[in-house]
Every structure is written in structure tokens, then in C-alpha cells.
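@channel sequence for tomorrow's demo:
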Amino acid sequence: MRTLFVYTDIGVKGGARSYHFGLGLLSSVLRRAGHTTGLHYMFDQWDPAGFESHVDRFKPDVIAYTSDSSQIRHVAKLASLMKDRALIQIAGGTHPSLYPKCLERIDGLNAICQGEGEAVMLNLANAVENGTDWTGFAGLMVKNSDGSIKRNAMGCFTQDLDSLPFGDREMFGYQRVIESDYDRITVMMSRGCPYNCNYCGSPSMGKLAEGKYVRFRSVENGIAEIKEIVSNYNVKSVFFADDVFTIDRKYVRKFCEAYAREIGLPFEVTTRVESSCYDTFKYLADAGCTRVAMGIESGSEELRRKALNRKMTNKKIIEAFKDARAAGLKTKSYNIVGFPFETKAMHQDTIELNQRINPDSLVCYIFNPYPGTELFNISIKEGFLSPDFMDEDFISRTDTPLDMPDFPREEILKCYRNFAFNVYKANSVKKAILYKVYYSRFGEPLIRALDSVKKPIQRLAMGT
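C-alpha cells (generated this afternoon):
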């Protein structure tokens, strides 16, 4: 049975290619069972003709799309192009999982997978291979020929992550991915997040299936995958993309001991202020960790508590960044502007908190109301967002669809573009100006034009 995976990655800020963990694992699972897989990676530019040509060459039995809310409009157009062909079209990922209505709305789409897809796709592939009915498997929602929807039971989360094969990175032309991301590979040691932030889809994803949602691979399994990647590709560093790397301090210590002994490459992690302490940071630093990133999102304790369901105090945030520095780590802060109920004064709180912790680097996004999140529902209920929002083009993290009289769009965009400049202007004029350019209207085309010198520019922006 032949499956063509489709990954649209269009309009990516900064222009870096990426490896999709879900598709890599699905490909390995199907290949292990004797099926044939391929990938159509539509990177950066819209190219439907190239997609059609690939389908003609590959001749798939199944086309399997993955999509978040920012990419679903592209998936819809591609599915429509294939609607008259004798094949099955299925979509998975966060958007179909949390906004299943997309199955009704997307012409040509036959089914969606809600939640984790390894068992679903393997069952489907085996059924298609054997010529048996594939529409009744748990985790699938299927569109019948008359347009009605068949809703099957939800599936189960994979409890033993070590039972899964390592992801198919070669399908992505992985060396090219590494080189586009500063010679760095990306690895995940876990699945799921224990926190319940109102703006994040993870809490809703955790309710889509039975079983424990937050799961870790064994240290041995993760180290073995890193060794395999390093032996096959030219690598200079590792980024761990887990939602919260430091949930279990005993696990962190065991991992750090093994990593320092068997890998030794510089690495970076993302974690939460609440699960951080000096001892954990020191384990990371001693193992070769160079940077830790933590989310602030807003400097207003009131907004974090009431709207975001993030209950850490500013005092705890300051302590966490101080502890990371004391352990010898560089720091990075994540920030968002344009939340429901936010005001310009609250955004000023975010600037002032970042000025106080003075992270070595930072990221700022504009809030977007992802379907399936609590803040999506609140945004519609409060009249900040049109009920027809999902019928329009979704804007991802660089503009706002919200209409808030106390914080209008023009002010949100201005705050977004000037945030990093305002944080750094007192301590580093060079860094402030660099960020000012990066977040400007002209930043994206300039970054692409200067692609050949982006590594030294990054070192300045990241404080290295």
C-alpha cells in the first residue's frame, strides 16, 4: 500500500526548513509493516502544480495531510484538487483533531484522524492493502458518500513510546533541514504537557483518547536515536522540542549523566518556570546545555491568572531566570501580545519584566485563537472574534483577528514590532536595532536576502 504524506510549511518566518515528528514516525511505522511511503513537502511557496506532478509519479493509494490552523487553507485547496481521483484523502494534526468540522467543509477529504495517528494509519494501510473496510477504526472520523459523518470511538494514547520506531528523517532530506537550522537537530523525549494554559491546544488534545497523556521515552531509547542521527548526518548541536523538558527532576538527572557520557554535543531545551530550579539547571549545564527557554507570555500577573490560566508569579519568573544564569546557562523568553482582555498597560508590564530579567534572547508572537482552546471560545463569546472566523484565512502569529476596543489592531501590531527593541534598548543598542529590523514589515524579505550571513546575525541576536 502506498501513502503519500503531505506537509505544507508555507510562509515560515525566518525560512528554516523543518522535520515533522508526526509524519516521520508514521512513515517509519508503515515502512516497518511493509508499506511504501513518500513525502510531498511544500516548503515556503505555494506550488499546486508540483504537488499534482508528484501525485502522478508516486501513484498513492492514500494521501495523508498534516495541518495546524495556519496551514489548513492550503490543505483544503490540495484536497479539492484530488477529489476526483480514485484514492483516499485523510488529514491529521492539531487542527483536524480540535476542529473536526473541517471534515465537512473540505471538499475531497474522506476522513480525519483525531489524536495520535500511529495505530490509526497502520490499521488503515493494512485494510486498504487487504481490500477490507477501513472506515470503522477508533480515532477515525469518516465522511460517507452522501456527505454524512461517521464518528468512531476515540483511540488510546500510545503508552510505551519505546515501542515506536525512530522517525523517518531521510524522507525529509534531513541534512538540508539541519543546515537550514544552524546545523542543529531536533529531538523529542516525551509527549504531552501537564499544564492547562487557556491559549494552548495541548489540554484539549489530552482529552481526545484514553490513557496517560504525559509520557516519556526511556533515556536509553532517546540516547540511541540521537546516536543514530549523529552517525548519519553532520550535526553541531541538539534542540529538545519537548513542551516541558524538566517535569521529572530524577529523569533529567539520569538523562544528563547519559548524555554527557555518550553524546557530548551542545544542546538547548524548553521548559516551564514552575518546574525549574537551580539544581536542575546545573544538571543541564554540566551535561552541555547552553540555553534554556521559558515562557513568560505576559508580564501581567492578573492577565496570566485570569485569562491564560498560568499561575506563576513574577517573583518566580525572575528567580527562574536568575537560577538559570547562576548555573551557567543562557536564557530565552517567550512572549505573546494581543491576548483577550489585554491592554497596552499590561503589555508594558511584559516589557518591564523582560527588562528586569534581561534574557539573552527573546521571541514575541501575536496571540491567535486556535480552535479547541478555551481562549478561542472566550474570544467568540466576548465578541472579540467573528463566529465565522474559521471560514476566513487564518493568520498565524504575526497579525491579529481580534477586535478589541481597548487594544485595537494597530496598537497590537505596533507593540509586536517594537517589543524586543523596547526590552533591549537600554542594555544593548546593537541587539535592539537588530531585533527592530527583524520584527519590522521588511524583516522577513531582508532575512531571506541575507541568508548567506544569517549565522553571524543569529549569534549577535542570541547573545552568543
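heads up for whoever presents: Residues 2-151 form a domain with the Rossmann fold fold (CATH 3.40.50.280).
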